[in-house]
């Protein structure tokens, strides 16, 4: 079959403008009526207006904002029919160019029946690039089988401030970890390793979001300015994007925030200078939802907003009105028609890459395979297991068979609180799901598990007996139990009653929602109401294990003083209850904190890789970085970086692709095999630059047999040993201290790594 | 008399190195022994080592760090003798080149008997450039009369995070206000308006500190990194320095922090590229205390640290060991000798400018006039009056004659808490001093004023009855009084028992010190102990007026809910008690908040001039900027910006020095004349840039007769209407909204100002 493959210039102006506009909310373009898909007048009007469409967002989207649920949405197994109804209409009434189907998939496809994965921050705790790639491939297969072409995927944002409600969408505060996992995600979802690879019918194109610096927003406020400098941008915020570009990511989504005053959607230096001219990447840049309309403070009218964005390098809008003014903008001479054609060419290029245009390449299967949900669920369960981080354990863990448990706290039996934002409604029944309560009850027997909620997330429970009655119930449940497990934290729950902003962020009163887009918190301390639950349990005289299920780093100082054991789990997804139960019972939890947990409210922002400073810290806080990235209690396991002599690699070699091998020996003195992540930390000594205290150079998962040792090799190349000051790795002579143990500063036995010049020297020693 | 005027090149290498090293702590160079000054071996060794000295720091310094007090320091009236002893030794045993005498004078000369002024943040509340200039001139006369040549003066740092202990040393969070006041300070102290003006015998040279971006340190931690971009640096942090350079400031002190990774003392782009090559300034750059030694993380050895700093543009060290390695650095080829000569030339140039070299110009008077303390004290009192900001007043103020008062709280009768950091010990007796308690007792009669302390600043009072007993005393004092005045806040008190860092910042346990260098706080909420005092007073059933004497913006949300009236006073100096009493009694307080007071801990950083953002703020905080810069309750006074039509000025005219006149009409409906500051706010509408919500364009003091009106003209020129993105003002077509009322966003009657291109157009309208 041959499909049309037009060049941009051959299309009428209005069709070209239609190719770069993605105005519709897809669930309004097609409705499920009487068991069949019907395209709506909304779609008809839009197709008539442009003579075709570039992309349609969210035909399958189901969540409270879209108001799509199991009662009115597209049945999962009939997704392809819904898409086909739209595609048939677009191609029949437009210029014959197929439309792109775009969906959200930040942690699984956000559609009815879509498998929900642990959030990115949970994958960050697992630090497992291979599993991340497998998960991504499974999600892509699920999505493409339904007919989706393009997945919008979080992963570029670096978690620099936990007040930000979208912290859960970040992999880490560390750019190297975020880069490794977003690259794995792109490889898995697209099945590509470079920009020249086409995307086959088992995969989807990825638009990675957000570009750039959204994690640096002032005060962690969503979309606030990121007044960062070039080096900070290059070393921290651009690294994930660079990694994604290198494996051929199809697109980037421009962020809401400004970088040093210039909004990302109007940022030519970023969207053209950096990613295209310097990196040589040539995919599609999509604006974030209504971001071009939001240029209204930066342009006097919509045509100017559209021209600004197009000139900067935005190729495709999302829900914007302004981008429809491109015709006027061209007429008024605000932007050249050639710039429009450049954008149209990129959109068509993506369709070509997906096999939607021309004679070659694949396409969405005519007869999609059944949704392969089972495999994804198993993989998601593995990822949830890896996300469990044990921080403290005063001999209370593992729980022992036959113990009687009290399982208390607001998140003990709340599936929603495990899921994260951007999640479709769960099916009923929901056999894959477990809460900590149900999972522990299944393991210990319902008669051995007592339950009390104790409080809401941010305040006492309502009800006739009020908060104190609920705390009495906690006390009663804990009394006589051997151990109390208090399940605390936050939730990104959205309800069909919430109010939303025009971009889907929660905007209205959501009294007990603490996380997700639009839910930024000034205080990340665990709320007093939750501490009261722990105090009530404590007063019963039993050991308390706190399990914090949350989407952001929390200040846990007060909690740690109250409990015997502390377990932290970034939103682990539907099977998170079982993951936690397993970790509590088998003592092999392997997650590490994917970001620094602050010692207190008021110390933010704080990260393990801030530059050296001469300050003593705050006089009213003990230790600033008490729980840095990488924190994990891993009993019986020891890591040792092999070798003592300085290791040397020429800078010129690095530039040519050489690598330096370092080996970490991991010993397991325990009686069961262990799987864990092995981090390699480094400090760069570079004349004239204040070094970051510690950076993650690389991390690998390893498996070590009981009583055995595993040698974990690291091949450190340009990415790990080069400078990222400009947003791409550059080889230069430098000296590093390298270690694998948890110290915030290089320990005395840190290995020296010398990246040398042509004379075998480094500037640090000369 | 003719003094030597050598060129740098004519001096031996070691002498040149001696000219750029300022290693000594001056109080260790000369001691007051048996009623006469004696130079010490410390000085002798140093002079022998170099064959002369460039500068000596702190011969007169007196404070806990130097351990100099009234019992062992230089008597004020004999300062010239102490200096002369050093100068005679240096010139006799060196190459005959006089040494520079350098002293701290951030708010008055930090020497025994030096007049202590309100801190800079208090001057920021007054917003009175003329008075600031007068004060500076008075301090300079006092210092030069003693023999001081160079004053180290805070004023460049912009208060972007109130957690920073040095917030008190900033004039404001707003760069235009800081720039106006630092320029006034330099004009007043130096008696210059440009770099070509010499500094006469009634004035001192100013080294303004710190350059640059220290106010942007992460988390408000002292000396932490400032990872800001060029536009943020140019628009916010460089403006005060640019203003100081323009009026010919003699020197800048390079800051501890890095800017986007490059330590200021090693920052060639800043210290040479920006301030010298672009601004055309050619004064002396002094390193901050031990800052070159602190380059140890950025250079492999001291010689490299020295070379880095010298190459970057540092001309003079402070207490450093590393800069003495310059000979080695030159020998090893790490830096050219010509670069050293450049620095030596600048140090000699400053001596020449001060009249210390050659046949022309003045010198330190041979027979110094008596210290003119009286005038300074009166001026300082006026400044303290202007610093009093009334935030809330529910009809409780003014206090009425005949009322009985309870004056309570930890700062009610604590002179130290009014003074700020960098303060010499007070004389005994201290007739110029007053606390709120003593000043109110003087006005109302001691029998009408009851007193109780109630708490310490950060916790309950010690003592046999503990905190609750002290609170009972508050309750008792308030019971039966007509009004309770609770004096709260913070203190920068240092004691002779404190521990200090090598640069004089407080380092050891200072349990009740809350402010000053080295005392950064994670929580800027008013401590619970102080709220308890207010609650105790409140429980007695009387109206409560809270007076917050502090050096930093505080989160006052909880306090405001407890009190009837709220008065905020940045550390007002020794006469601050009387200033507060007057303001409480006469109802004409005129101060405005010089920085945004945050609604809560956890919202930081926050400023009135952050860029527009789309976020809703935090879900757990009501209004982010409830008390923005400029906040003041000014009863009976109304401000109106004259004119409704757009006002136009050509960009080309601005570049040539033209200005646009706008007039604010101030009406005073009251029965007494009023003096107040009149702010002009603006928002720039510039295509492609996200505007700052509101900026202070300019501010002027005005006096308005009772029942009358005053027309306050503003001539807006390049500084006010140009772009500061590059760190210096540039004229470009742009549209602004301008207003003078307190709204955070342009009100509907904001005046449009058009800066036009050659066609009479602005890009915002096209």
Automatic annotation (TrEMBL), chains A, B:
The keyword Hydrolase applies. GO terms for biological process: glucan catabolic process. Residues 388-611 form the Glycoside hydrolase family 3 C-terminal domain. Gene3D superfamilies: Glycoside hydrolase family 3 C-terminal domain, Glycoside hydrolase, family 3, N-terminal domain, Immunoglobulins. One of its GO terms (molecular function) is beta-glucosidase activity. It comes from the Bacteria. Residues 741-766 are annotated as: Disordered. Residues 755-766 have a biased composition (Polar residues). The keyword Signal does not apply. Residues 80-349 form the Glycoside hydrolase family 3 N-terminal domain. Keywords: Hydrolase. This is Beta-glucosidase.
